[in-house]
């Protein structure tokens, strides 16, 4: 009998191996563009941010790329996507925000908003209700 190992299973094993606090790095040596992910957790052991770095072959250094920030609420959580601003040397305001909210005993409402070109307002790009697993 063959075993199938998915990326989700590998990530699950990784998260089970770490103790849940502080910063943890995951390096994908097989990735075409060489990617490093840095994970931060809050005091309750929940994921608070995931930062994706890419390898710059010219400078031989890891370069910031994208950060996901997780904000938790009573009835759900938000995931904010921010891109690295090379000139300002900081992450810009989120370009996309996804809100996950309880919509019933076994349902989750998922709404995704994207920043407009003027960067002064977010607009709804996706709205759905999914079953909670």
Beta strand count: 9
Distance between the termini: 27 Å
CATH class: Mainly Beta
* Biggest sheet statistics: 9 strands, antiparallel
What is the name of the CATH architecture? Beta Barrel
Polypeptide structure, described:
The protein is mainly beta and 133 residues long. It has a single domain (7-131), classed as Lipocalin, CATH 2.40.128. The chain is 8% helix and 57% strand. The protein is built from 1 helix and 9 strands; from the N terminus they run H-E-E-E-E-E-E-E-E-E. Strands 1, 2, 3, 4, 5, 6, 7, 8 and 9 form a 9-stranded antiparallel sheet that branches. Residues 1-23 have low confidence and may be disordered.
Observed structural traits:
Lipocalin, about 130 residues, 9 strands, mainly beta
Question: Summed up, what is this model?
Answer:
The protein has one helix spanning 7-17, and strands at residues 23-28, 35-41, 47-56, 61-73, 76-85, 90-91, 96-104, 107-115, 122-131.
Give the helices and strands, then pairings.
Elements: H1 7-17, E1 23-28, E2 35-41, E3 47-56, E4 61-73, E5 76-85, E6 90-91, E7 96-104, E8 107-115, E9 122-131
Antiparallel strand pairs: 1-2, 2-3, 3-4, 4-5, 5-6, 5-7, 7-8, 8-9
